[in-house]
Amino acid sequence: MTLTRSGPVLGLRANAAQFTLLVAVNALVGGMLGQERTVLPLLAEQTFHLAAYTAALTYILAFGITKAAANFFAGTWSDRYGRKPVLIAGWLIGLPVPLLLIWAPSWGWIVAANVLLGVNQGLTWSTTVIMKIDLVGPQRRGLAMGLNEAAGYVAVAVTAMATGHLAATHGLRPAPFLLGLAYAALALGLSVFAVKETRGHAHHEAATHAPTQTVSTGRIFLRTSFTEPALSSASQAGMVNNLNDGLAWGLFPLLFAAHGLTLAQIGLLAALYPLIWGLGQLITGAASDRHGRKPFIVAGMLLQAAALALVAHGTTMTTWAIALTLLGAGTAMVYPTLLAAIGDIAHPATRARTIGVYRLWRDGGFAIGALLSGLIADTHGIPAAIWTVAALTAASGALAAVRMYETHRPVVPADARTG
Predict the structure, then answer these.
(1) CA angle 5–143–79, rounded 5-degree value
(2) What CATH number should be reported for the domain holding residue 251?
(3) Domain total for the chain?
(4) At a CB cut-off of 8 Å and minimum separation 6, what does 267 contact?
(5) Could you give the percent of the chain with pLDDT greater than 90?
(6) What is the mean pLDDT of residues 409-419?
(7) What sequence ranges are listed for the domain Major facilitator superfamily (MFS) profile (predicted)?
(8) Residue 359, in any domain of the structure
(9) φ and ψ at 3, to 5 degrees?
(10) Which domain holds residue 188?
(11) Above 70 in pLDDT, residue 2?
(12) Does residue 4 fall inside a structural domain?
């Protein structure tokens, strides 16, 4: 982390070592989520014999509610106490999660584990996002968010595939969740001994902006949620994005199993979507720095809607592989770009709280997706749930197209301006 007499230096190159470390920590955050993607829906059906989809998806509902709340508090606490203490607290809370998943004697224990996982994900993922935005400064936020989200979701994919293989070889418990235990222990050690505080970088950047009056958290909530067109458009798009991810997490493995796919095949499909999502962000985040945020957000939501429709229509592994590739590509267009748009608008002095509010809405989508898709699947079947969510995703993209303005204006080099 580079410091000068005038204060911290912003920029990706100047803070490369600390930025890279935070990318690695966020990969471990994603791995904690990935340990559940393949195994938990099947555990609900085969071990705990939950026949109703709504009951089976209670773990996603619990996860979504607690992660959304933790995101909100992560922003506020990061401003008040610093980024690093919040990161460490998140890993301390996440450490028991794999053990609860291994030893759970009833489904209630699984739900309790996902309450802790939601808090862990909200505190740790939000904080790594805030810290990276602190470090890189205004011009490379898209690239920074692309790298951050790519690390997290590639780890989700790799872990989902690995746990599918472990489950097929050694059973649904305990082997798949031992990976999560290793991730949590390693990440806690890195956070305590290697990660450095970045709040000073945000204060340094704030000094280069016009002074801002003290803004209450309530006012930031209203502005981000409803009144500021780009912030509120990003919040609704993020919520719908994770609504369809909650559907994919909870119901896709059950849909594939109902059509006779093996555990290994289900694990491969469960990994394909976050893998494309993760790797694609290496391209889309940086591209939004050059071409703007809005085109990626609108096109990505519409592509997700088309991909979900193809999942609902499909009956073979080949069709689903194509659909999940498209779903991953659409999500990659949206995910880092929404975060970068929030960073474009939010004043550095209120950035952490603004990100917290956005992520409150975004990850609340997990809970809404689990509840909505579970209720529709119970009454009309899984394909009907997927068609419904596809329609909502298309509507979200249309709303962003109408209401959102472009938030990022690339800086043109002086030699280009003078011709």
Answers:
(1) 55
(2) 1.20.1250.20
(3) 1
(4) 38, 160, 161, 163, 164, 165, 167, 168
(5) 63
(6) 43
(7) 10-408
(8) yes
(9) -125, 145
(10) 9-202+216-410
(11) no
(12) no
